[in-house]
Amino acid sequence: MPQYDYDLFTIGAGSGGVRASRWAAGLGARVAVAEERYLGGTCVNVGCIPKKLFAYAAHFHDDFEDAAGYGWRPGAASFEWKTLLANKDREIGRLNGVYERILKGSGVEIFRAHALVIDPHTIEVDGRRVTAAHILIATGGWPTKPAIPGAELAFTSNEAFHLPELPRRVAVVGGGYIAVEFASIFNGLGVDTTLVYRGARLLKAFDADLGRFLGEQMAQKGVRIVYERNVANIERGPALRSTLTDGAVLESDGVMFATGRAPNTRGLGLESAGVRLAAGGAAMVDENYQTSVPSIHAIGDAVDRMQLTPVALAEGMVVAERLFGKAERTISYDNVATAIFSHPTVGTVGLSEAQARGRGLDIAVYRSTFTPLKHTLTGRAEKTLMKLVVDRASDRVLGVHMVGAEAGEIIQGFAVALTCAATKKQLDATIGIHPTSAEEFVTMRQESV
After folding, report:
1. What does the alpha-carbon distance between residue 137 and residue 133 come to, in Å, rounded to a whole number?
2. CA 229, CA 199: separation in Å to the nearest integer?
3. Tens digit of pLDDT for each residue in 144-202?
4. Rounded to whole angstroms, what are the CA distances from 323 to 247, 253, 290, 392?
5. Among 43, 31, 18, 20, which Cα is nearest to 102's?
6. Cis amide bond preceding 435, omega within 30
7. Which domains does the chain carry?
8. 434 is a catalytic site residue
């Protein structure tokens, strides 16, 4: 008779938890997963998927205008927020069902309830206690709000996908990827949008040129950006009154905080079970995603690595194979590509210019800014930025960065190239596809000063 009820008990049925659970089950493990909210986690329900659907919706504003330059005379356009919400909810519901079928089809038992870790091998779930040889924490992250008066009057990205009405005026607070994405979405849907950021440039975690350039492009599209200030308090009146740190008052019908996320690890009993948590709540893990308790592992946004869905997926497979397979799979956090679905889109992979210089490398930087072919007829002032960071000693391309249409689609291919240690000489020898924006990456010859 088995010593434990399950070989693996996963807490959290987001992207990482589902992948780890079904991968482990495929390797012959007896697996259960507990999820108290929604299958698919943040990405499917209040993150990547609905966010990109909203970004598509917001793009039509420009598309209708641009059509005129190509001879189209579209009629008067109107937008219905409730239709977008209903269609989005239908798609999310479909994906929830897909995740459930994936788990059940893999033989994974699903508990739709909160799970509490009692000890290294015991979990309390759905009114009973079960045991497992291994426990995996895959509970993701949760948006945070600053501790200021009136913070309860604001919403976060979680609630942004379910607003009963689209505000006429909105203030988005933050300068990271969630902030710039939602500021672009609201602006594209016709909302009078102000972005308030405490820093001097957007996207501080990325190459400096990306944040500066994106700010310029967003401002051209009508987003008011208030730099080097923050919201000190919010008061309710006929409108929401946000007092900034310089004393200025910003009135809006909605305030969205996109100022950070925290690991969703509280209330799981981890500390009582002996799991060490960092000050911000992240489960502290080693290179094998093992916590201070050998039988308890953690992945994804519950740990302090990279908050990206594909990374959580990869980590989940590493844990499953280490515990139940041949333990041959590994992860490199170098050259993990990502895209920010702002307007325009940002795509990036590899080292920023500052990171490369910080490592003491002698680098060559190639930078190009141009008007995309599409806008030679639309008259739109939107520009595209492309940038390469190259190690002079080895000629290896260290970073590829872009702001412009389809940046995510373009950068994905260059992520493969960087993983294969591509050199600038190899890029130069590549014949581009003409006419495309992407060909600029293989035709840049002049170093930037």
Report:
1. 14
2. 7
3. 999 999 999 999 999 999 999 999 999 999 999 999 999 999 999 999 999 999 999 99
4. 56, 51, 11, 42
5. 18
6. yes
7. 6-143+262-324 (3.50.50.60), 151-259 (3.50.50.60), 338-442 (3.30.390.30)
8. yes
